[in-house]
Each structure stands twice: as structure tokens, then as C-alpha cells.
Write a structure and sequence with these properties.
The complex is a heteropentamer of chains A (406), B (172), C (218), D (165) and E (393). Chain A is mainly alpha-helical and 406 residues long. Helix content of chain A is 68%, strand content 2%. In chain A, strand 1 and strand 2 form a beta hairpin. In chain B, 35% of the residues lie in helices and 18% in strands. In chain B, helix 5 packs across helix 6. The model of chain B has no long low-confidence stretch (mean pLDDT 84). In chain E, the strands form 3 sheets. Chain E has a 3-stranded antiparallel sheet with strand order 1-2-3. In chain E, strands 7-8-9 form a 3-stranded antiparallel sheet. Chain E has a two-stranded antiparallel sheet with strand order 4-5. Chain E has one domain: Cytochrome-c3 Hydrogenase, chain B (Orthogonal Bundle), CATH 1.10.645.10. Chain E starts with 31 loop residues before the first strand and ends with a helix. In chain E, strand 7 and strand 8 form a beta hairpin. Chains in contact: A-B, A-D, A-E, B-C, B-E, C-E. At the C-E interface, strand 3 and helix 3 of C face helix 3, helix 8, strand 7, strand 8 and strand 9 of E. Strand 3 of chain A pairs antiparallel with strand 6 of chain E.
Chain lengths: 406, 172, 218, 165, 393
Amino acid sequence: MTALSGTIPVFASLEGAPIALKAWILGMLENMGMPEPFLMLVSIQLSILGFFSVFLLLFVLASWFERKILARIQNRRGPNRVGPAGLLQPIADGIKMLTKEDIVPVAADKVLHACAPVLIILPAFLAMAILPYGKNMTPVELEVGILLFFAVSTATELAVFMAGWASLNKFSMLGAMRAVAQILSYELPLILAATSVVMITGSLSLTAMVEAQGGYLLGILPNWHVFTPWGFAAFAMFFISALAESNRTPFDLPEGESELVAGHMTEYSGFKYALFFISEYLGLYVVCGFAVALFLGGWQAPLPFLTFIPSWIWFFAKILCLVFVAMWIRGTFPRVRVDHLMNFAWKFVIPLGVMVLVSAAVWHLAGRGPLGWILSLPPLLIPYWLMARAYGRNYDAGGRVYRFAE
Amino acid sequence: MGITAKNFIASYTKPESLITEEYPEEKPKLPENNRNFPFLVFDDDPDAGLRCVSCKICERECPPQCIYIVQERDENGRPVKQPKVFDIDISVCMSCQICVEVCPFDAIKMDQEYELSSLDRFDPLIHDRQRLSKSNEYYHSIHPAEAAAVDAVLAEKAARKAGNKKAADNES
Amino acid sequence: MNALSTESIAARVREAVPEAEVELIPNKGPSGQDSLLIGAAKAVEIAAFLRDDPELRFDYASNVTGVDWPERVVKERVTATEEVDGETKEGKKVVETKIPGFLEAVYHLYSMERKHGPLVVRLRTGDRENNVTLPSLTPVYRGAEFQEREVYDLYGIRFDGHPDLRRLLMWENFADYPMRKDYTPPDDYEYEPTPHDAVLEKAKRHQADDGCGKGDPA
Amino acid sequence: MNATAYILLGILLIASGTGAAVLRNPVHSGLSAVVAFVTLGMLHMALGAQFIGFVQLLVYIGAVAILAVFAILLTRPEASHLPCLRPLRRAVAGAVTAGLVLAALLIAIFRSPSLNREPGPVAEAPVAEIGELLMTTHLLPLQTIGVLLTAALIGAVLFASTNHS
Amino acid sequence: MNPPSETGSPSPNPAESPRYRTAGYDSDAQLLEVSLGPQHPSTHGVFRMNVALDGEDVVKLKPVFGYLHRNHEQIAEQVSYLGSMPYTDRLDYFCSLSNNWAYAAAVEKLAGIDVPERAEYIRVITSELTRLVNHTSFLGFMLSDMGAWGTVLMYAFREREKILDLFESLTGSRMMGNYMRFGGCRCDLPPGWLEQARKVVDGYPAFLDEMESLIATNEIVISRTQRIGRLPADKAVNGSMTGPCLRASGVNYDIRKVDRYGIYDRFEFRVPLGDHGDCYDRLMIRFLEMRETLKILRPALRDIPEGPVMDPKARQRNLRPPEGEAYARVEAPKGELGFYLISDASDKPYRYRVRPPSLINLTLLEDLCLGEKIADVMVILGTIDIVLGEVDR
């Protein structure tokens, strides 16, 4: 135990490390005679610098991570030539993207073509501002945190449309229409899942939501939202719509289309294409960040005696787990067809979303205890079972029995 | 999902499930019957010991017609059982080893060398006689069983020829 | 291998389709697959009968292909008696008979229902230049559609009644028919050093008359 | 510092508003309308009403702008053949109407008594309070709007599905 | 060479054939003319389809061939019988050994050569191993057409490599076997080959179970393949569809059972039949056929007799079969592969015709795709399983 106890003070000091660092720099600047408004400006810049560099590092990690995971799933070794175990591979990709010629089609609408990739990265960066990275480590303490995320993520639809419209070619037009329809129809379940959490915590701000998930039930089980019946259903819905929002398999219809070439990104090359690529991964990280903040107890440690590990490590560990699950799904499932995608959203996920709200209300009114559990399960399970049966009636889901001839 | 998980974990626990072969470091070991482009066998001396007697059967039988033979002529023009020019255009050859099958003198066999890339599309891909001819020992090294069988047949044929030459001597 | 022999099929066809010209062509090889030559006039009717007759049920056109028979001079040694200055003499004489050339479409029909073997049906065109039309059997056997297009593309037999007769493999304005025996491929392929001198001369000759060699289709 | 923010946002708002009206290419004018909505949202936030600001962003960009853009996308109007008066007469007509409207506004503002009163304390409106108000005093209008929107949605779906089958 | 255009040529009836269903769609709806291929991620080679789309639904689909046409038949008529044996590997380059067997069977029927016992066993073993290779890679391509890039393809190729190593040690080359001759096989099995083959065959059921649990009950695969591209039995027979696609429509026609060629009547194996004839059936029929193939391979590998591999009096080099013609066919993994040879007693065939199952199975591609979604065209084309080397010859 001595080794462990030795490390506790070290970890404890790590807990507030980022805040202490920022305070130390500000203090140093202050006694260098920096006037007041500039100090405020510098403190904002420092926090931006903080999470901005962490996320870009995560992006670099993500592209290497994805290749390695997909490779290992497919019994391959994955990139190991460039740098130790292929770690410099993303940097090599970055250089390749930077040096590639940026071809803009002649007939394209230059203005829109240029600002589409910029607009598609915007929401990811803006939404980073309100993520609760650690105990009192939220860059912008907004009272309406979750609302900013939804307001800003509508910009992706506009950017995708602009990309599709500006490249003026048949494939990107069809791809853009499909992408906008997909993102739009999966925005609704995202909002429904989030409102159920807002209803339970009573406030829109993310830090309040994470605090509401503190504390441990009978010493072991952390009372995260995901361990409640409505919370689990809402988390599943949130994660599925998150995959659809960021065009990940099995919903990578717009750009992974084997028959429509590359959807709205057909006419992009060079660093503009890299921006789309970065926006996809950052979007995935941010949405997983929100899923963690809303359902998996943000920076809360899963077990009481583990709280000595700093809170922001928990936050990023949970994000990486969710991203791993997303990549694991990418390695397994084929793509869904467009009309199945739409049917699934409008006929299955949104009605279930409304039922989640009902079940959350029942859970809250029934006192959040075991009684809450018993009462809030039926409004979820009955409609799920009914709809699943209706949805699967015209397919023989269990596979067919075949006859043989001699 | 379970299957992909199993394979993911297996790739770390069971190293042999990884099928990537690091080519430049680990060279693939070729089975004995493997065949690439043909080569000419010579017994001991590259020029005189060449088994090929330029009978041009392989040139006729080769489906894509990629072999080109010119017969040697001695000083006063009589044909000699030696190929002066024996070119194989390996950009046309599809290594189907029909030439090996039809050659009555076991003069041409299939090689196993596969690193033959060159910078120029034309001349380096036309292997001339000098580059094609390789020793019988090399033949034994790449196709041991087959080489042994061929040697046995040649030895027995030589013995029979020596036998009936001796018979012809003591007859005369 | 076929349950009922070709002769009995021919007999059934003659009595089923009134004035059908059906002729049996024996197969000299050991494979024993004799074929039926049917006249072009009643071809579609005969095919429909072969497919729908409950006894025969040839419902599957496995293979449709073309064969090119150019004019052949057949020399036979025949003993002919002829008047040579007054008296008749028995003498071996080589008689050259010229058989006119024609194009042929061969259909291999099978029965999936009754599982009996190939009935080889042949249709012959008038000659090889202008009278090259044959009735298409695609209305009877839908499977023959692409194969008849290929025969039209490679042999030049024009099938009337075919829903969409276009060239299958070559491009639209390719004028020649590549699989005919008298087809000479164009020699305008790009020059490439090769050990075969014959190929080199051909390419040089082609380059000599600056690229519009006689075989050039355009 | 707030004053400079207001001036900047004001200029941006006016510029993107006129852009939306004047630009020839329909897509460009649609997108400059979007810029106008964003600046309006930012104005709200500058005033401290974050909830209204984000709802403005969410509703206008999320729904109205996409609606406009889809309309442009599906009808694909070519920029060239939009009906318009001859350039000279159009400029004069535009200036006259703008001047009249401006004059009417200015007169109304300067004559109204409220202009020279001291601005009251900024009402602190936390989100929870807005929720309370919506659910208690303004419940009826909220529900009617809800019913109206659902009717519109169903109408749209019916309208769209009939002409395709 | 100017690219082939699909507009009407001076053919007798250039009018649009009535089969295209443009009635149901209002004509002013802009039909989006899309040309899928020839450079396309999932068309199994250089194959182009001109598709007219109304929104998502396919209204017209015209396949265009000829990009890989090298007039294999004309070459065969200028080369000796033995000379065109290596060319048959290049027809359907996934199953070179069953192509060899079909050509060898045709020449044997033409010249009346018989085959020793051991060669018959080797032919059955190699051609059934080729069927395993073909159906396994079919699964891999099928899933990557549907969007699961790589995963199933890698599993399929891992198994395929094991069998290709067997072929390499037997015939000398992984894909281009050129192994069978008229009257037997070129060389005998190398030592230790049979044990290696038995090990591969014994390891196969585990792979099939893993694949089946990954694909057969996967909801997305089910929703993308069931009730798509339905082919009724009578239309399949009339359209000369052969192979697994025909049996998926419920027609019991397997040439190994009908013609009883080779020694197939010694092995008891069953022929799986589907009921609906849609993409899901075609996918599952190949799974079941692989299991039946294993039932053939195990006894074949167990009791293969000793003895000569080549009929001693069979001549390879200047074989001059007697005048006549012969049509022989084999149940290749893709369908009925037939060779029609006419000989005029010279050492070159007078007429050499290949009956390509891939091309003839494509006749009904258009009927299957009319009315389906654009995303399904790829799935339907995938289930028909074509290889362009055989389509264009």
C-alpha cells in the first residue's frame, strides 16, 4: 500500500494541475504589469489553448487508433512502418494532405466551395467550449450549455449542403441531399434524449448535470444516468443518433457510398478534404464528450476509492472508450440503405424518444428508488417490443430454413 | 459484433492469427513446384554444356510466342546443335511451362526467381541466352525431386546410347 | 446420353410442325452428339414446340454460338468413266467440288425439367455476304439474348426479332466481324521492340505508309 | 466595450440583410440571410439573454435556413431569369420607398415619450423562470402553437406523399 | 479506340425495347442518367452499367461489356489444343482449375481419351477446392459491396490463402494452375500434400460457422438483401440462369447430379435449394454449398487410390482429334461452364467456343434491378457473382 499511498499526493496535486498552471501564468503576467482587459483575454486564450491542443492531439491519435483497431479486427497488423508502431502515420497523412494539389472544379461556386469546409469544422470547436473536462474545469460556464451544442450543430447541415451545391456535380448533389436529410432526421432523437436528462437534473448547464450524477448507490454503483432504465434507453438512442450525425458506419451513407462515389466530398482535395476528415473525427469526439457528460457521469470516478485519479483523466478515458466502440462498430457492420435509415429514425427512434421522456417522468415522480425502477420499465419495454415486432414482421429475422434435393 | 471482438483480442493473444507477412524482412518460402519464368540448364560449361539443341519445338509450341531462337552456324555455314540467340521476352511470357513439357531434351526448366523488376519497359525484359542459362546445381537447388528424376532419365538415356554404341563397335 | 435419340426427336418435330425442313446431321467424332439442321422459315415455331412439348420439354438454351464455314474446295478421288477419244476408260480422277460458304448458328438445348441431354440445333444462312439474316430465338429462349448479340458482333449474322440487337463486345462503329476465318486484324498497334522480327516488319510496314494501314477500321 | 460590440453587430446585420435582398445568385442571398440570423442571435447573447440567443440560432438556422436552402435546391432557379424591373427605374423606386419608411420610423421614435426615460434595470431571466412562465401563464399559446405546427407537419407529409405515388 | 457508346447502332430496330418500365413514372421528373463503372469500386472488374434513376429507383439499366475483350476464341483457333490450356486459366481467374477441367473434358470427349482413376480423384478434389475459394471470396466481396469494408473480406482471404498455398505446391502457381491435360493431370501430388489438404478441409467448418453467425442473422444484412432482386423459377430457367443463382430460385439443376460426369456419383452430397430467389437466398445457398463441398472433399481425400496420373497413350503435343464436334460442360462455381469444339482433324481446333456462365447470368440483371433502389443494384450484381475475364473473354 505504501506505493499507492505515495502516489496519492502526487495524483492529488495532478487534480488541479491545469487550473494551477493557468493561475501561475496569470499571476506571473500580472506582476509583469499586464493591464486588466488583456489579462482576461489571456486567460480565455489559455483555456482555449488547453482543450484545443488536447483535442487536436486526440484527432491525431484517432486516425492512428482507427487504423490499428480495424487492422487488428481484420487479423492485419496495421501501420507499423512510419515511426515506432506506426505512430507517425497521421503526421505522414497530414503532410500528404497539405502537399496535395487543391483542385477546385471550374464550374464550381468558388466562394461556397471555399467556406464549406470552414463552416463544417466550426460546430466542433464551438461545442468544445462547454464540455465539463474536470471538477470546475469547464472553459465557459454557460447556464444554457446543452442548448449551445444543438444550436451550433445545425451548422453542419448547412456546410454539407454548401459543399454539395458548390461542387455542381451530380454525385455530390445527390450525396448532399442525402446527408442533410440524414443529419436532420437524427437531430430530433438527439434532442429528445438530451431533454430527458435536462428534465431529471432540472438545469440546462452541463456542470450541473455532471454534479447530479455524483455519489454512489450502496457504496459501489455510481448513480450515473446510464444505470437508470430511462437513462440506458436514452444513452443508446443518443449514441446511435451520434453515429448518424457524424456519418459513421453503419450510417456512412453520404460519403462511404459504394455507388455514389464520395457524396458531397467528391470535388474536394488537398487540405480542404483534410478539414472534412478532421471535422468528422472532432465531431465524433465532441458528441462522445456530450454522451459522457450527460449519461456516463462526466468526470465522476466509477468507484468511490478511485477518486484520487484526477477527474479530467476519467473524462478523456470514457471518451476514448466510446470512440473505441464506434470504431468497433465500424469494423463489423455493413451500411444501411437510405430508406431503412429514414424509416428507422422516424418510425422507431423518435416514438421511442417520446416514451423515454415519459419513463423519465415516471421514474422521477416515483421517487427515483426501486419503485421508480419497476414503474418506469413498462413504458419503455412495451412500445419497444410492439414496434420491434411490427418492424421485423416482413423480414424472417432468424434466417431461413432451406430444403435440399438429392 | 462478438466475432470481430474475438478476432481483435485474438490478434493480441495468438500471434499466428496475424497474417501480415513483412515482405522485405521475411521472404516468402516457395513450395518446390513453384514456377516463374523459364531458364536454360547447362551441365558444366555455360557455353558448351548447354542442353538446348535449338530444335525450336518450344518456340513453335509457346502459346504467346515469346521465345526467339537463332541456330548457331559454324564457319562454313553448316548448322550446329547450339542456339546462337535464345531470347525470352518475359513481358509476354505467362510462365505456363508448356515449353518445359514439350522440350524433348529437358533443356528448359522453370525458375523460382521473382525479383525481376526493371526500370525500362523494353530491353531489360528480353532475357538473352547468357542471362537465361543456369547450372544444373542451381536446378537441383530449386527443384530437388524433379531435378533428380531428370538426371536419372538423362543418365539412363546416356547409358542406353553408350550401350548401343558399344554394340555398334563390336558389330563393326 | 440423351434419353430419346435425335432421330426420334426429328420425327416428332416433322409431324408436329407441318412443313418444317428438319434434317439430321451425324457427328463423325466419338462424342455421339448428332445435330438437327432446321430451316430458317419455321425456326421460331420449332423452337416453341421443342420447349413446350410435354414429352421433350427442352426449356433451357444452354449455349448459342456461331460457326463460319467459308467456301471449301473438296477434292475427292472418284472413279469416273469418261469418253477419251472413243473408248470408255476406268480412271481415278480428282473431282473438285466447290461447296458454297455459309454462316451457322448452333443452339445447344437442354431440359432442366426432365434432365435429358443436349439437342444440337443448327440454323444456316444463305451465304456469307448479303443474305445473312436468321430468325432470333430470343422470344422463345430469353437466355439467348446476349449470346445472339455476341454472334452478331463476332460473325455478322443478323437476327431479326431480337429485342435489342447491338454489338456486345466491340464498340459501335467497328465495321468488321472478328471471328470470321477471313478476318485480318489491324496492324496499327503501337510499335514495341520485340524479339520477333516478323512482328517488327509488320509494324514498320505499317509505320511506313504513315499509320493508315489497310486493316484500320476507322 | 459593449458599445463597440453593438456597432459592429449592427453594421454586420444591416450588411447581410441588404445582401440577402440584393445578391443575384439565390444561394448567396439565402446564405447571407443565414448570416443575418446569426448576428441577430449574437445580439441577443451580447444583451445577456443567452436562452433567446441560442433558441434563435437553433430555430432560424436549424429550420428556417434549411427550409429556404432546400427550396432553392429543389427548384434550382437559374440566377439569370429572375424577373426584375429595368435597372434605372428599379434604383429610383427602391430609394423612394426606403426613404419613406425611414422617415416614418424616425418620426415615431422621436415623438414617443419612452425615449428619454432612464433605461430600467436589466431583467435577470434565468432559464428556469422562463420555463415556469411558459408552463403556467403562457400555457395556452404554447399548446395552440404546438397543435398548429403538428397540423402543418401532417399537411406537408400528405402533400408530399400524394404527388409521388 | 473510341469508348463504346450505348446509343442505338444501325441495328434493325433501334427503337427502345418495350421492356423498360417508364410508364409508372411521370415523364417530366428529371431522370438522372448515371453511368456506374467501368472504373467503379464494386463492379468486380471493368463493367459498366448505364442506369437511369428517378430519385432513388432504377428505371432503366443497360450493361455495357467489351472493356476486357481479347478474343480468346480466335487465339485458341490459331494455337494447338495444348497451347490454349494455359489460356483457360485466364477465363474465370478465380476458378482456374475448374476451367481446365471443362476444357480437358471437352477435348477428351472430342478425341475419345479416357482418364485414369487417380486423375479423376485429383480433378474432383481440386475443382471442389476451387469452389470453396470462389464462394469464400464471393462472401468477402458481397459484404464489402454492402459497406462493411474489409472485415469479412480479410477473413475470407485468410481462408482462401490456405487453399491457394495448396494449389501453389501442387500446380506451381496460386491462381494460374494450367494443371490438367487431355487424359489426366500434369504431375502427381507432392509428398505431404494430402495431409495438408486434410488439415485445411478439417479447419473449414469452424470458419463457416464464424462467417454464418457474422452474416446470416445480421439485421442490416437481412434488411438489405431479403426481398430484393426476386427471380421466379420459370424466368430463371428461360433466361438460362445457371449455378447457385438458379438453385436459389428453387430449380433443382446441378450438373454434377444431372450429367454425372467425372466420379461425382461416388460421393453422396445434397443440392441446397432456395424458395424466394432473392439476394438473401443466393447468399445463403453459397454457404450451404460450401458445407456440401466439404462432404465431397473428406471422402475424396480419404480414399484417393494410388496409380498413374496420366493416361500413357494420351498425346499432348500434336494431338489430332478425329473430325467431329463435342460439347462438354462442368458445374463451375459460377454456373455451367461449357466448351464446344469442332475439329477438322488438324492439330488446331476449327471452332473453339466457351459458354461463359457469368455473361449469361447477366442477361436477367436488368429484370432484377428494375424498380429497386440504386443501393440495391450493387447488392444484386454482387449476388450474381460475375468475373469480367469470363464475361468479355
